TrEMBL record:
Transmembrane segments: none annotated. Pfam families: PDEase_II. This is Cyclic-AMP phosphodiesterase. SUPFAM superfamilies: Metallo-hydrolase/oxidoreductase. One of its GO terms (molecular function) is 3',5'-cyclic-GMP phosphodiesterase activity. SMART domains: Lactamase_B. It comes from the Bacteria. Gene3D superfamilies: Ribonuclease Z/Hydroxyacylglutathione hydrolase-like. One of its GO terms (biological process) is negative regulation of glucose mediated signaling pathway. Residues 20-227 form the Metallo-beta-lactamase domain. It comes from Sulfurimonas autotrophica (strain ATCC BAA-671 / DSM 16294 / JCM 11897 / OK10). The lineage of its organism: Bacteria, Pseudomonadati, Campylobacterota, Epsilonproteobacteria, Campylobacterales.
Amino acid sequence: MYKNSIKILGAYGTKAKGFGTTSFMLNRHTVIDAGNLLDALAEDSLHIENIYLTHSHLDHISDIAYIIDNYFCKRSKTLNIIGLPQTIQALKEHFLNDIIWPDFSKIPLENSDVIAVKYSELYLNEEYHLDKQTTLTPVRTDHTVPSCGYIYKVNNAGVLITADTFSLENIINTVNNDMQIKSLVVECSFSSNMQTLAEVSKHLTPKLLFQALKKLKRDDITLYINHIKPSCLEEISTEIEAFRGNFKPIILKDGDFITF
Ligand SMILES: [Zn+2]
Ligand SMILES: [Zn+2]
């Protein structure tokens, strides 16, 4: 895997046979969102140490439960779960809470003295270094729960991943003002005749997406689309073709790579 690439472990907005939910692999140890780790990575999931979350919805966090459970006896490193303070709070209260699933932040690993899970909070618009050349910056998005997208940069070239959002205003301003961003991964969950559902659940349709993208002032951006609900895939793909204008969007599938 090249350093300036991201592997799509799960490209879709919900789980179905043959369709994984949202997860992006940045390197052997680090992912954004944990919708589809085990199926995509198999034994290599053992090496995941850092999960950066966009928000607390199940399709983005579900494999946290299984990655830690399945490889508990083999792991020797803590699994770091990193996200906005409200996202971390939601996981502690509603997910790994000793009711839905064990609170692994209290349990040491069998193989070493370290704790199984550790939480870290991050803050919007602050740049976090993964290593000398690589940064991750959370940016505000617009969803039904507190949420963020991420700008991922390697050697000053980057991609912005929106994750779930309704408004693209902040995202488009960010891309217009940061010429180092070369690619945009944007969600499109529902077909355009489901606009009411998209509005209340704060997601996009092809019509809304390409309306919003009219404010993008850059013509050098590679546009990727993810988080399609698999049951709408055919209809959404046809609509993207109808609404795309001059854009040449690439619809992501599980296993694809983004290079930038
Ligand atoms: Zn989602
Ligand atoms: Zn969501």
